[in-house]
Amino acid sequence: MDFPEGITIPFAKWVNTFTDWVVVTFDDFFDVISDIIRAILLRIEDFLLWLPWFVVIILVCFAAWWFTRRWYMPVIFAVFLFLIGSFGLWNESMETLSLVLSGVILSLSIGIPIGILMGRSNLAESILKPVLDSMQTLPSFVYLVPILMLFGMGNVPGVIATIVYAMPPVIRLTSSGIRQVSPDVIEAASAFGAKPRQILVDVQLPLAIPSILVGINQTTMMALAMVVIASMVGAGGLGQEVLQGLQRLDIGRGFAAGISIVFLAIIIDRISSAMATKQQIKER
User: Fold this and answer.
1) Which of 210, 154, 149 is nearest to 181 (CA)?
2) Alpha helices by DSSP H, the chain
3) Spatial separation of the C-alpha atoms in residues 150 and 157, rounded to whole Å
4) Cα–Cα dist 103/41, whole Å
């Protein structure tokens, strides 16, 4: 009752052959992409490490108060950041934050235009939906291998893996936000002589901003969730601390880095969620 041994498809061999061909043929192209991503990452990282720790805490507390209007939020966030520094993980947390910000910036730069295309074209939606489903369900370790072959070890493949994992939410929510704009509003704009580009820029995008902001929040959180996996291909920061704690069975080291990631996740989530809520209130 076993599956017949004579029926085999050499799928793995085909994938390996194709990957080898891509690496050889497009080596220069991937070097350019790697240089661009590395430049963005290093500039963000250098800036965050250049800022004094107390300035970072002040800026985060101000943002928390500005968007939430709750006095206890800045206090809690200041305690979280102070604890990260007291763990001896301040530089690692800034490196992680630079990795997340780089991944988010590139994800939004690619994802929002694709989401706009999906929101305005049924054909694009039918083609891209299966791709997004694959990006969200495919195990991260599967695409880490070809990314590693194309970009080598280091932070760059970590950013690429983060983009693949974190980009689908902003695409879906941007598309959803544009499609939820009332047809009556679009018809009224057309009746006043608005062109398709004007309808997109002046009508659909402003009304879709709350949904887009939620997508940005989700993309940011998913990017932060990738820091440990990205450390397996050479990315530094808190993820590397967790990985080294696991490899050396150093529970304290791994737990301190893990708690620091949780603190960063809470801070980013609360501020970005408050931004989306504030925008929704304005739209009403």
Assistant:
1) 210
2) 11-25, 27-50, 53-68, 72-86, 90-120, 122-137, 140-151, 155-179, 183-191, 196-199, 205-225, 227-231, 238-247, 251-283
3) 8
4) 9
158 within 8 A of 233, measured Cβ to Cβ: yes
Q: Would residue 2 count as lying in a domain? A: no
Please count the other Cβ atoms lying within 10 Å of the Cβ belonging to residue 163.
25
**Structural domains counted in the chain:** 1
The CATH number linked to 164 is 1.10.3720.10
Residue 5 lies in a domain: no
Q: Residue 150 sits in which domain range?
A: 11-283
- Other beta carbons less than 10 A from residue 219's beta carbon: 28
The answer as to whether 166 is a domain residue is: yes
DSSP letters spanning 66-80 = HHH--THHHHHHHHH
Question: What whole-number distance in Å separates Cα of residue 59 and Cα of residue 37?
Answer: 26
Mean pLDDT by 10 residues, the chain (284 residues): 76 84 84 88 89 90 86 89 90 89 89 89 88 82 79 83 88 89 82 80 84 87 83 80 82 87 88 73 57
User: What's the 3-state SS for 109-145?
Assistant: HHHHHHHHHHHHCHHHHHHHHHHHHHHHHCCHHHHHH
Helix, strand or coil for residue 195? coil
Does residue 1 lie in a domain region? no
As given in the structure block, the two tokens for residue 216 are: 């940005």
